[in-house]
Design brief:
- By secondary structure, the protein is an alpha+beta fold.
- It has 10 helices and 11 strands.
- The chain folds into 3 domains: 3-42 and 157-198; 49-153, Beta-Lactamase (2-Layer Sandwich); 319-451, Histidine kinase-like ATPase, C-terminal domain (Heat Shock Protein 90, 2-Layer Sandwich), CATH 3.30.565.
- It has helices at residues 7-39, 51-64, 70-83, 114-124, 157-203, 221-277, 282-312, 325-342, 362-379, 419-430, and strands spanning 88-92, 98-102, 130-135, 144-149, 321-324, 346-350, 357-360, 385-392, 396-403, 434-440, 443-451.
- Strand 8 and strand 9 form a beta hairpin.
- The longest helix has 57 residues, at 221-277.
- The chain is rod-shaped, with a radius of gyration of 55 Å.
- The two termini are 65 Å apart.
Length: 452
C-alpha cells in the first residue's frame, strides 16, 4: 500500500505537525509577522525615551529660563512639545498661577496652593504619567515648569509594536491552532463515519440473512477492510448457493431412495407372508417373524426419512384446526394400549377430565405421539413402563410421556439415527408447541406444552 493512501501516513503527518507546531511554527510566524513592522519607517511617536535623560533635559531647560519673560518660557515649552509630541508641558509662576499649557488640561488648577503643590509632587513620583518638575532658574520664587508623558509612550519601539499588534498576533496563532484542531477532528470524524458505515452494513441483513456488499471508497486500510468484507460476502453467498443446491440434491436423492425402497420392501413382506403359511420348523418360523419385524422397521425408517425431507422443505401437508387435545390423546393411547399390553408394559394414564383445545394439525399430532410410543416400544422393553400424564394450569396444558428405559444416551444396537425425534421436533415447532426432554439411566421424560 502506498504511503499516501495509508491512514497511518496521514496520522503521522498530523502528529508531525503537532510536534513542530510550538517550536517551529510559532517562531516562524512571529518572524513573518514582526519583521516587516520592525523594518518599516518609524515616526517620532515611536522613539524610545529614558526618564533620566528627560529629567536631565528638563532641568537644563529650566536653568536656561533664568530671568526669562513669560513669552520666552512659552516658546521653550512649545519647542519641547514639538520634540516630544506625546508629552504635556505647562508652567506655574511664582505666585502659584497656572500659565500656558501644551495642551490644555482640565485637571490643572488655575491657582496652586502650597498643600496642593506638595500633594501634586507626591502623587507624581514614580507614577503614570511620568512627571518631572524643575524650578525656573533653579529658584522657587520664579515658579516651576512641569513635563508629563504617558509611560507607555516611553517604551522601546518594539514594545509599541507589540502593544498594537499582540492581539492580532494572538488571534492569528489561535486561528492556526483552531485550524489544526479542526483538521484533526475532520480526520477522525471521517474515519469514524466510514467505520460506522461498515458496521451498519454488517448489521443490515439481506433477503438471505447475509449483509450486502459495500461500496469501496479510498484505497487505505479501511478500504482494504471493505474489500475483504465484500469478498467475505461473496464467499458466503456462494456457500449459501452451494448449500441450496446440495440440499436440493439431497432431498431429491432421499425422495428417490424412499420411493425405490418401498417396492422391494413390499415384495419382501409378501414373500415373508407366503413363507409363514408354509410348514416350517419352529426355528424357521422365528426367522420369518424376525424378517417381518425388520422389514417393518426398515419401512418405518424409509417413511420417516421421506417425511423428514418433506418437513424440512416445507412440503408436508399442514392443516391446523381447533381440536380437543385430551380427546385426541385418549384415542391415540387407546390404539397403542393393546400393543403395549401384549409386550408386557405397565401403562399409566392420568389425564384430567376436562376439555382443552389446541390449534394444531391432528394428523401431525398423531404422528408425533406415534413416533414417541414407537421409540418406547422399541428401545425400552426392559423397563416395561409407559406413562401418559396431563398437567393443566390456568392457561397452559402439559402432556408428559415417560418410560423407565436406559435413556437416550445409552449405546444400543437397536438405536436409530434419531430421525423420528427430528420429525417430532419439526412438527411441534411448526404447531407452536413447546417441548422438552429429560433423559438418564433411569428413564426418559418427554414434555409437550401449549397454551389454551
Amino acid at each position: 500500500m502506498k504511503f499516501r493512501h495509508s491512514l497511518l501516513g496521514k496520522f503521522l503527518i498530523i502528529i508531525f505537525i503537532a510536534v513542530l507546531f510550538i517550536p517551529i511554527v510559532i517562531p516562524v510566524t512571529s518572524a513573518l509577522f514582526y519583521i516587516p513592522l520592525l523594518t518599516s519607517k518609524q515616526d517620532d511617536s515611536d522613539k524610545e525615551y529614558n526618564g533620566k535623560d528627560i529629567e536631565k533635559m528638563w532641568h537644563k531647560e529650566a536653568d536656561k529660563l533664568k530671568g526669562a519673560s513669560p513669552d520666552q518660557i512659552n516658546k521653550t515649552l512649545k519647542k519641547v512639545k514639538r520634540n516630544y509630541p506625546n508629552s504635556t508641558v505647562f508652567w506655574v509662576d511664582g505666585k502659584g498661577r497656572t500659565q500656558q499649557q501644551f495642551p490644555a488640561q482640565k485637571d490643572i488648577p488655575t491657582r496652586w496652593s502650597a498643600s496642593y503643590t506638595v500633594n501634586f509632587m507626591k502623587k507624581s513620583y514614580d507614577s503614570d504619567p511620568f512627571t518631572t518638575v524643575a524650578f525656573i532658574g533653579s529658584k522657587k520664587e520664579n515658579g516651576f515648569i512641569v513635563f508629563q508623558m504617558p509611560r507607555n509612550k516611553m517604551r522601546p519601539p518594539i514594545d509599541n509594536i507589540r502593544s498594537r499588534y499582540d492581539l492580532i498576533y494572538a488571534f492569528g496563532l489561535l486561528a492556526l491552532f483552531g485550524m489544526f484542531i479542526f483538521l484533526s477532528w475532520l480526520f477522525v470524524y471521517k474515519l469514524r463515519k466510514r467505520l460506522l458505515h461498515l458496521r451498519d452494513a454488517m448489521d443490515q441483513k439481506g433477503n438471505e440473512g447475509i449483509p450486502e456488499p459495500v461500496q469501496v471508497g479510498k484505497k487505505d486500510e479501511i478500504g482494504q477492510l471493505e474489500i475483504a468484507f465484500n469478498h467475505m460476502i461473496y464467499q458466503l453467498k456462494e456457500g449459501r448457493e452451494r448449500e441450496r443446491e446440495e440440499e436440493k440434491l439431497r432431498r431429491k436423492l432421499i425422495a428417490n431412495l424412499s420411493h425405490d425402497l418401498r417396492t422391494p420392501l413390499t415384495t419382501l413382506r409378501g414373500h415373508a407372508y407366503t413363507l409363514n403359511k408354509e410348514n416350517l420348523s419352529e426355528k424357521g418360523k422365528e426367522s420369518v417373524e424376525l424378517i417381518d419385524r425388520k422389514i417393518t422397521y426398515i419401512g418405518q425408517l424409509v417413511d420417516n426419512l421421506f417425511s423428514y425431507t418433506l418437513l424440512s422443505s416445507g412440503k408436508y401437508p399442514f392443516h391446523p384446526q381447533t381440536i380437543d387435545v385430551l380427546r385426541k390423546i385418549r384415542m391415540i393411547t387407546a390404539t397403542w394400549y393393546p400393543v403395549f399390553e401384549k409386550e408386557g408394559f405397565v401403562v399409566n394414564i392420568d389425564l384430567p377430565e376436562t376439555k382443552i383445545e389446541w390449534v394444531i394439525d391432528p394428523d401431525w399430532f398423531e404422528r408425533v405421539l406415534d413416533n414417541l410410543f414407537q421409540n418406547i416400544l422399541r428401545h425400552t422393553k426392559q423397563g416395561k413402563y409407559v406413562g401418559v400424564v396431563g398437567k393443566n394450569a390456568e392457561s397452559n396444558f402439559t402432556l408428559i410421556i415417560e418410560d423407565h428405559g436406559p435413556g437416550l444416551n445409552t449405546i444400543s444396537n437397536d438405536k436409530g439415527a434419531g430421525i423420528g425425534l427430528s420429525i417430532v421436533s419439526l412438527m411441534l415447532s411448526e404447531m407452536n408447541l413447546n417441548w422438552d426432554i429429560e433423559t438418564n439411566e433411569r428413564g426418559t421424560k418427554f414434555s409437550i406444552s401449549g397454551s389454551h
